[in-house]
Fold this protein.
Amino acid sequence: MFTWLSMAHLPDPPEIFLQRAHALARRTDLPDMVEYLSTPDHRARLVQRRGATVTSRAQKSRDMGEDWDAWVRENIVDDFIESGLRVSEPVSDTHGAHTDPLRKWKLYYLIERGGEDATTCFYRETGQPVIRDLDDGSVVCNNMDELEVIDRVQWPMNQWVLLNTMIIHGVEGIQGYRYNFTVSIKPRNLADLYLPVKKKPIKVG
């Protein structure tokens, strides 16, 4: 069992994609590319933390383009569930505790931290296993004061890491915008992340 793993051996995205991410992050006129991220319940979620009730942040998804998906397939992993940019807008300092749906792990590349104090926490819910192994749906915990923190981490900037999104997790202490590249995979594809690139890397830009 792991909460997260360093994937420092994976190549950094080319500068053209970083520039595109910075340009897209603060756009408010773009649709979400992932359906469950745009539901009203997801957007209006309230959580309790340290005795106070706050609006939970909710990531928005941004399409990085077909050339991004092609780069991911050629350089990172050729079998993934979804990929793109995720943006956390400054509605509060908390992204509420949750698991991700679809029994997946998530490759995560942090571009903008959201302040020096922004910290990802992994939790255990009382009476429940650490790994919440669901075929569909997700676990949402709105009273974060009832959760046990089992790990805390501030991700390295501009480096791939792998999150076990079947463990309850959230982010605390966020200021301003926070955004990252994400590539979701099935656990069976973990070994593919350690294989050398078989094809000549494609050029972009």
